[in-house]
Amino acid sequence: MNVSDLLQNELLSVGSALAYKIMSKHTVKQGRFVCFLSIAFIFSHAVHAESGKGLIDGKLAVCPDKPNCVSTENNVLTPVSIHLKTPEEAWLILKTVITEMGGNIIKFHSDYLWASFETSLMKFTDDVEVRLDLENKEIHLRSASRVGYYDFNANNKRLKRIIKRVSNKLEPDRFKNINE
């Protein structure tokens, strides 16, 4: 168990104690609602530290067996092809797209990018990691929630939007509507 897991467990026990105290003063229905809000608040402001991000043997980390992580490295989605542009151009386009979509770029190197996105409703933080594969002229992406198990497909949808926007900017003629 790493420091991040220990901190999350500690916050959960604090949240549970807080919920119990609140439930003893209010009706069960009100208590459950307050409990939900308390735990959601704790998770939304829990660990925001770097938690093992980066390349592992030149690749993005393998997604755990949870539905809140998706990656092009395990063939769930197709990576971005950069055959028509220089890697430098493609990398800058990717950085621009992530910033335009509300991503906060935390690390940016010549072959690796790490950005975070905050969900609109509950303010959870999701991490997007990207690596530039010069050998295959591709950009691989991974998106994962920092906490929780299920994300209502948010990470999958986010990566699909990033891939589509970057691909459109790399090859605008390929995606033009022929009826225009």
What can you tell me about this protein's structure?
With 180 residues, the protein is an alpha+beta fold. The chain has two domains: 3-44; 69-170, Kinase associated domain 1, KA1 (TATA-Binding Protein), CATH 3.30.310.80. Helix content is 39%, strand content 19%. It has helices spanning 3-25, 28-44, 87-100, 154-170, and strands at residues 69-71, 80-81, 104-108, 112-118, 125-133, 138-145. Strands 1, 2, 3, 4, 5 and 6 form a six-stranded antiparallel β-sheet that branches. α1 (3-25) runs antiparallel to α2 and α3 (87-100) crosses α4 (154-170). The longest helix is centred in the N-terminal third of the chain and has 23 residues, at 3-25.
Q: Quickly give the structural class.
A: alpha+beta
Biggest β-sheet strands, sense, barrel: 6 strands, antiparallel
Helix content: 25-40%
What is the average per-residue confidence, as pLDDT, rounded to a whole number?
80
Distance between the termini: 56 Å
Number of strands: 6
Question: Uncertain segments of ≥5 residues (pLDDT<50)?
Answer: 11-19, 41-51
Just give the CATH class of the largest domain. Answer: Alpha Beta
Anisotropy-based shape: globular
CATH topology of the largest domain: TATA-Binding Protein
Order of secondary-structure elements: HHEEHEEEEH
Number of domains: 2
